[in-house]
Design goal:
The chain is an all-alpha fold and about 100 residues long.
Amino acid sequence: MEHLIDETMDIASQHFKNFGFQDEQIVPLLESGKRDLTKELNKLQELLEKEVMEIHSINLSVHALKGLFLTMGNVTVGEKLSEIHHKSEDARIINEIKNLLSLTS
């Protein structure tokens, strides 16, 4: 997951510059984004490791992560999470989420 966070920070830095933010504005945005991504990814990982998975809680976490990734400019991951989120009632999404996290960590 660390690779995913680092990749997103690189994308976000350029994304915010392209959006017109100044460097002094970008630094706190990146710090906040990294903190929020780390927190939510860890939360999702914990939910996925539970013996009895709570699909509703996983769905909420995927939704939150989708928004974070899209806001930070990592459209590839954000769109994949969006696809997964739309299939949230299907228990098979668990494998898709695990694959997404393991492929990028």
